[in-house]
Every structure is written in C-alpha cells, then in structure tokens.
Amino acid sequence: MKGKRLDDELMAVSATDGHYSAMTPTTLLRSAQNDSFTLPVKPADATHVYLFFASQDAMDYTESVCFAV
Question: What is the pTM of this model?
C-alpha cells in the first residue's frame, strides 16, 4: 500500500428506509489499523451502517462495506 493511502480517514454513513446521514468522519486513519469510534446517530432508527475510507483531499473513496445494525 502506498504511504499516502495510510492517511485515508475512515468515514461512516448510517441509513434507514432510503434516508442517509451525512458522511461522518471518524478521525481514524488507515494507518491505525485498529481503533474504535462512535456510530452516527442519525437517522435515529438506522438499520445499516456503511464504512469506507476517504483520501485527505476527499477526491478518492474506497468501496463501502455495509453492516446491518
């Protein structure tokens, strides 16, 4: 993995019934490889959370991974 990719930040989006939260930064960098964060709270009755990495300039994003909650 290229060094600049280690500075990508983990982002989260929560969703329910077609309503999505704003992209929420977690402040966790890919280089940490292990940490914890608080899930987004809106929409309040979220059924899914999408996680993905964003580059520092917010021009590149990884494919998201979806978790049912």
Answer: 0.84
Rounded Cα gap, residues 31 and 6, in angstroms: 5
Helices (H) and strands (E) in the chain, counts: 0, 5
Residue 53 has pLDDT above 80, yes or no: yes
Average pLDDT over residues 27-50: 85
CA atoms lying within 13 Å on the CB side of residue 39: 17
Burial of 62 (0-12, 13-18, 19+ CB in 10 A): middle
Given a cut of 90, is residue 50 above it in pLDDT?
A: yes
What are the residues whose beta carbons fall under 8 Å from the beta carbon of 53, sequence distance 6 or more? 8, 9, 10, 11, 30, 61, 62
